[in-house]
Amino acid sequence: MTLTSASTNPAAPNVAIVQPSRLTLTLRYFRRNKGLAIGLGILLALALFTIIGLLVIDPKKAYPLSAALKQSPSLKYPFGTDFFGRDLLAAMVVGMWQTAFIGLLAGGIGTALGVVLGFLAAYFGGWVDGVIRTICQILTPIPVLLIQVVVAGSLDKRDVTIVTMAMIVAMLAWMGPTLVIRAQVLTLKERQFVAVAKLSGVSDMGIIFKEILPNLLPFIAAAFVGQVFGAVFASFYLAVLGLGPLREPLLGNIIWAAQSQGAFFNGWWWWPLEPAFAMILILGALALVNMGLDELANPRVRRTE
Amino acid sequence: MNIRIVARRLLFFVLVVWAASTIVFFIPRLSPRNAIRERFGELARTGGFSPADVEKLIASMQQQFGLDKPLLEQYWQYLGNILRMDFGYSLSRYPMTVTDVIAQSLPWTIGLLLVTTVISFVLGTILGAVAAWPKAPGWLRSTATPFILLTGVPPVIMGILLLFFIGFRLKWLPLGGAYSVGIVPTWSWSFFIDLMEHQILPALSLILGSVGGWVLSMRGMGITIQGEDYVNFAEHKGLTGRRIFRDYYLRNALLPQVTGLALALGTVVTSAVVVEGLFGLPGIGTALNLAIRANDFPVIYGIVLFITIAIALLMTLLEFVYPLLDPRIRAN
């Protein structure tokens, strides 16, 4: 604002050009990158719903036999209750929290594995690169979700908890980030500033952590969001198939339970519908953030419209 | 395409199948869970066998399934069985083999998958091509928008929404099953209509969310191609818009779409599996669902492996189709 007034009003030459604050710049960037802003907004709203819910609601109500059975949404039970006597409002709050937990844990592990492996492959090259790349290529066409079905199916039902669920999901999800980080490191390590650092005697570790890693951060952030999306989706998929921790009110589990009890045939429409809407919000918001971050990380693929 | 490339593709296919089989073989054996013991444990609880008899049964079953041999020997035998598409016996429907279970449910899945994939691929590609084509009428270009908004909604969730709005609220279409209860399958017109009515919602839940993806990739490709010299050249040569659209623009933009189809196969099949389960169609997905509920491990592993092999095979086949579509690849 100051800038425009200075240029249009030559009578006031002494107006200082003020550097806009960080906040203004961020807000301006959000105005250009609307997808990122909307996605973050929805995620924030969901986080608030979960946090306030966890503070206000008794989490025990999310488990069977804690409320009246099969009540449609009313003042007492805003989201209704299900066949097993769970208050669905409480179930949604706890389920949302568990979904977020699985997503962040599995996404974090998957990204960390991908970053380390991608780094090793690209930085050291040679046979290390060959082995890692070949494994990624062979594993990529195998539908990961189905392999996860095998893993989850082999476990004792009592052993399946929220944490094992996250581990199952993370175990087979590192191939994507590995290839992305590998490609980025390959281009970065040929840049001049890395050559300069090498010539001035910086050690391998110094180059990795001080020269290359900071340049990778946007890509790591984008890969992380992608991984969280994948993890949320994979855990949802397993739970819908009945391979989740059956007692927990994970969103996929609620749908699985509703489907096994023939919820629509019996007219309990709210039961499967609520987790479905929650899932749309979570996945939609994550997809928007993911696309927005891609744009932030890769200015070259910014929209040309 | 020369022999070396063909050989390399085939080798890659064999490697993928081998990797998948190995994973499916070793993961269950790393777990302390014993499928046969659990199965007969259930029977013993419900059927009143004496524990000694159950132990004998388990031992004889272990022997029959070859589970008493050393692990490596089992592994070799297993790989040989996979080559012959022999996945062993189903535990919950015992005299049936896993291959029987798959063969019984496969036609349903193939029918659903073929129809939905073709519809969403063709529809998405055409809409995407039109959306990027500046001379197309405005209303036609904007038909793609609703599909783009639905991109990425998982098919199960789409299925639940469709069930609620169309099946439950409007009562236009049935809520599930392959055909109405009480109808005997016959080769009649009325049965065919009933069958189709039950297929519409599952098909829609697979189609609606996936069209947008094809639209987006095709539109991106289309925008790039419009700037190419050969399109300009065709315009200046005075070719009709229709001819440019079909021969210069569509044909070149299609190639990445076919690659995308190969990459999407895994997602398409895995999402069909859950949708079938949701609607209770008697396909592979429902067979998997039932097997998971009944702890029928050979069926679970067999189905997973079968799907993986089928996908790898289709991907390899699609790679052999490229040269037919693209003369540039043929020349190299």
Automatic annotation (TrEMBL), chain B:
Residues 106-322 form the ABC transmembrane type-1 domain. The keyword Transmembrane helix applies. GO terms for cellular component: plasma membrane. It is found in: Cell membrane. InterPro entries: BPD_transp_1_N, MetI-like, MetI-like_sf. SUPFAM superfamilies: MetI-like (SSF161098). The keyword Metal-binding does not apply. GO terms for biological process: transmembrane transport. It comes from the Bacteria. Keywords: Cell membrane, Membrane, Transmembrane, Transmembrane helix, Transport. It is a multi-pass membrane protein. The chain crosses the membrane at residues 6-27, 112-133, 145-165, 172-193, 199-216, 253-279, 299-325. Belongs to the binding-protein-dependent transport system permease family. This is Oligopeptide ABC transporter permease. It comes from Devosia soli.
